[in-house]
Fold:
Amino acid sequence: MMPEHPTALTPGAPRGVTPWLVLVAALVFGMVVLGGVTRLTESGLSMTDWRPVTGWLPPMSETAWQAEFDQYRASPEYQQVNAGMSVEAFKTIFWFEYGHRLLGRIIGLAFFLPFMVFLATRRLGRPLTLRLTCLLALGALQGAVGWFMVKSGLVDRPSVSQYRLAMHLALAFLIYGALVWTILGLRNTPEYGPAEAGLARQRKIAAWLLALVSLTVISGAFVAGLDAGRYYNTFPLMGGSLIPADYQSGLPWWQNPFENIAAVQFHHRVLAILTVLAVLAFWLVNRGSKLTRHTRLTTQALAVMVLVQAGLGIVTLLNYVPVWLGALHQAGALVLFTFAMMVLCSLRQRHT
Structure:
C-alpha cells in the first residue's frame, strides 16, 4: 500500500505546479528579507499613500519627485527625524520602499496568473484548489496589513507600531509556511519509507519545536519595532546582569513585555536560547534512533542552522545591528523556520 501523507493534496503534483510554488515561495522569501532591509534603512515611511492598482510606476519627472517629497515632508518622520532632508536623500529611502511594494505586486501576479491557468486547464484537484485560494486571499490580506502597519507611523509617531509590525511579519511567515508545507505535501514519493517506531511522540515534539521557532521570530518583530537591538549590545549580560535592571519599567504588566525595550530584548534572548537548547536536545535524542536517513539529515540540518542563527543574532547585536547583518539574521530566521517545517513533514503519519 502506498504511503499516505496528511498534506498530500493530490496523488502526485500536477506538472508545473511544484516549480511554480517553489518560485513563489522564493519570491516571498526575498520579500521578507527586503522588508527587513526597508525597516533597517528606515525607509518604510517614505511612501505616504497606498495605490495597490495604480502605484506600479515611480515618479517619472522632477515635478513628480517634488510632489512625492512634499507629501513625505508632511509626515511625522520628516518633521521629527529627517527635517532638512534633500530630495536626493529622499530618493534613496524611497527606492527601498518602492522596491518592497513592487516585489509584492510581482508576487501577486506570479501567483495569480499561473493559478488561473491551472484552474482553466483543470489541472488542480479540489483540495489543492481550496488551499491555493486561501493562499491568494492571505496574499491580498497581507497587502492591506502592510498598509495598516505603515499608517501607524504617519499620524503622530515617526515609526510604525511594533504590534502591527509583528502582525505583518507573522502573516508573511504564515504565507511562506503554507507555501512550503504545500510543496512538501505534493512530494508524495516513496523515498521516505514506512513509519518509524515512536513516530507520534517525535512528531508532537517537532510540532512544538516549530511553534517555538515561530514564537521566537514574532518576539524578534517586537525587538525590531522598538529598535531594541540597538540597546544592551553585550552578550550574555544586559547592563551588567542577566536580567536588566529596568526589566520592570512602571508600565502595566500586560504592556511591559511588549513596550519596554529591556523586557522585549530579554524575552527574545530567552526564547532564542530555549530554541537552541530544544533543537539540540531533539537532535541528540534522535541521532541514534531508527529514523529514515532523510529525517536524520533534516534534523541535523535544523541543529546546525539553529546554531548559525543564534550566532548571527549575537554578532548582529554586538555590532549595533548593521543593515547587512540584520538582513542576514532575518533570512536566517526563514531558513530555520523552513528546516523546522521539513522536520515536521518528514515525521508525518503513514499507513503501510
In short: The radius of gyration is 22 Å. Residues 1-8, 189-197 have pLDDT under 50 and may be disordered.
